[in-house]
Amino acid sequence: xxxxxxxxxxxxxxxxxxxxxxxxxxxxxxxxxxxxxxxxxxxxxxxxxxxxxxxxxxxxxxxxxxxxxxxxxxxxxxxxxxxxxxxxxxxxxxxxxxxxxxxxxxxxxxxxxxxxxxxxxxxxxxxxxxxxxxxxxxxxxxxxxxxxxxxxxxxxxxxxxxxxxxxxxxxxxxxxxx
Length: 178
Fold this sequence. Notes:
The protein is α+β, with helices and mostly antiparallel strands. It has one domain (2-172): 3-Layer(aba) Sandwich (Aminopeptidase). The chain is built from four helices and eight strands. It has helices at 17-24, 39-56, 105-120, 135-143, and strands at residues 2-3, 7-10, 60-65, 71-78, 91-96, 125-131, 147-153, 165-172. A hairpin with a 5-residue loop joins strand 3 (60-65) and strand 4 (71-78). The longest helix has 18 residues, at 39-56. It starts with a strand and ends in a 6-residue tail after the last strand.
C-alpha cells in the first residue's frame, strides 16, 4: 500500500468491482479508449490487474480517498502487452471516476507511484503514453516531471483510428538503445 496526503493506493478488493465497472462504463472516463467496458469486461480487467499484482508485486493500485474511503479508480504501474520500439517497459497510468477529476488526485498518486517505482522497485525508467488528443493525461505526465519522447502509432488500434497516434513520455535513466 502507498499513502499520500489524501489517497490510499492499495490492493484491490471485491468491493471495488461494482464502482470499477461503473467507471469503465462512463463514456467521458473512457473518451480516449476505443470503447467503454461492459460489466463482464471490467470484471475480466479486474482479474488481470489483481493477477499481475500478485505475480509481479506491483501493479495498478486501487485508489481510495482517505477521508471517505470511496473507491476513486486506479493509479499505478503495469507492463504493456504490445510490441513497440520502447517495449518491454514499465508504464505508469491512471483512471479516475469523474467526481475525482480536476482536484490533483491523479498527479498526487502518480508522483507516489513514480517514487515507488524508482526507490522501491529500483526501475531505471518508467514510461507513460496516451492518445495525443488526451490533453488532461498529458498535463499529468508533465506535472510529474516526465519528458516528452515522441509519438508512435498504437499497434492495437487500426490505421486511421482517431486515437491511434499516441505520445510517449519517459522518466528515469534512458538507455542508449531506446
